[in-house]
């Protein structure tokens, strides 16, 4: 099977990191589009929601005197009460009883003059105009000593737009940008090192697999350290190695058995031929038997050399082994020439 050259497109790490980056990019894009749609929307849902939340927050901090009448707010809200004095034209609040009589107010009575004579006490959210300015208002009921009070809070549209457009949205945009950078780089670095640590056993298994040769078919790849998703593949590879080792062993045993079994018949045939009277046919048969005997001995040497326990590797001098190798090669060449002449 031809080897396929691996490129960065075939890398599992690259694909996972690419999927992570694409996911982060899409998340940031969706968040940005959602914020942009909310900012550019002509709907006043956001403004009325903010006013309603602020109204309920104020209602939870309303305080009463000994007679049960509202007198102000607790200390946690005291630091922000000044806004009703400084921004008296833009924001205001009042507390009404169940009949609509004002018990507490932060502004002049004219602030609420455009509201209907019968105030919308049961309406959680409503709008009215004051001197041509749209005001967003909300009502929150407050239960105290069995009596129901209604706190109403109002803020002008232009003030809310200023707070949102001049302060909230820029800070939100900076927060989204900072969050995106942190998500991309910090989590990206964590994902990179995590993938490197996770895939390290695969690289070690690859090195071990590359070191396996016909003389080390008994080796097996480690399964405990590899990820669980790759464990079946490594197990299948080890099973294939076991089958290959078994087939190799059977082949070597067959060669050794065949060589041993052929030695005795060849010796008997040679003895019978040597008893024949001298003739050209006799010499030719002896040469053939000698050639077959050398082939059998070579098979035996091959099977012995295939067993690692039959030899040991060592450093030798070429000058010491070269004469013996030359003698063996010369003897083998002479035998081949005699066989060819006899044929």
Outline:
The chain is of the alpha+beta class. Helices cover 59% and strands 13% of the residues.
Descriptive overview:
The chain is of the alpha+beta class and 343 residues long. Helix content is 59%, strand content 13%. The protein has 8 helices and 7 strands. The strands form 2 sheets. It has a 5-stranded antiparallel beta sheet with strand order 4-3-7-6-5. A two-stranded antiparallel ribbon has the order 1-2. The longest helix is centred in the middle third of the chain and has 54 residues. The radius of gyration is 48 Å and the shape is rod-shaped. The N terminus is likely disordered.
Keywords:
343 residues, 13% strand, alpha+beta, single chain, disordered N terminus, 59% helix, 7 strands
| Strands side by side in the biggest sheet | 4-3-7-6-5
State the end-to-end distance.
Answer: 42 Å
For the sheet with most strands, the description reads: 5 strands, antiparallel
Mean pLDDT: 76
Kindly state the number of beta strands: 7
Structural topology:
Blueprint: H1 12-40, H2 45-60, E1 62-64, E2 70-73, H3 75-78, H4 82-86, E3 91-96, E4 102-105, E5 125-130, E6 133-144, E7 147-156, H5 157-210, H6 231-274, H7 280-306, H8 318-342
Antiparallel strand pairs: 1-2, 3-4, 3-7, 5-6, 6-7
């Amino acid at each position: 099977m031809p080897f396929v050259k691996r490129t960065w497109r075939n890398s599992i790490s690259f694909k996972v990191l690419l999927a992570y980056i694409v996911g982060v990019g899409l998340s940031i894009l969706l968040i940005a589009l959602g914020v942009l749609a909310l900012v550019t929307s002509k709907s006043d849902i956001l403004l009325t929601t903010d006013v309603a939340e602020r109204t309920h927050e104020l209602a939870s901090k309303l305080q009463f005197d000994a007679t049960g009448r509202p007198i102000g707010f607790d200390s946690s809200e005291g630091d922000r009460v000044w806004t009703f004095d400084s921004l008296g034209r833009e924001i205001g609040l009042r507390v009404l009883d169940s009949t609509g009589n004002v018990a507490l107010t932060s502004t002049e009575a004219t602030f609420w003059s455009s509201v209907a004579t019968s105030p919308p006490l049961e309406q959680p959210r409503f709008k009215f105009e004051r001197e041509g300015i749209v005001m967003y208002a909300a009502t929150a009921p407050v239960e105290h000593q069995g009596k129901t009070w209604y706190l109403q809070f109002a803020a002008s549209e232009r003030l809310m737009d200023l707070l949102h457009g001049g302060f909230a949205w820029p800070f939100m945009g900076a927060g989204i940008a900072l969050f995106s950078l942190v998500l991309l780089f910090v989590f990206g670095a964590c994902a990179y090192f995590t993938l490197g640590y996770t895939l390290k056993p695969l690289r070690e298994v690859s090195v071990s697999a590359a070191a396996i040769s016909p003389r080390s078919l008994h080796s097996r790849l480690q399964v405990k350290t590899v990820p669980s998703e790759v464990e079946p593949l490594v197990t299948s590879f080890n099973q294939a190695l076991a089958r290959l080792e078994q087939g190799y062993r059977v082949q070597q045993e067959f060669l050794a058995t065949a060589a041993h079994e052929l030695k005795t018949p060849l010796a008997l045939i040679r003895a019978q031929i040597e008893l024949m009277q001298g003739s050209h046919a006799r010499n030719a048969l002896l040469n053939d038997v000698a050639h077959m005997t050398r082939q059998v001995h070579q098979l035996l040497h091959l099977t012995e050399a295939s067993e690692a326990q039959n030899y040991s590797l060592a450093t030798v001098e070429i000058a010491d082994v070269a004469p013996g190798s030359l003698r063996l090669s010369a003897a083998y060449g002479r035998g081949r020439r005699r066989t060819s002449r006899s044929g």
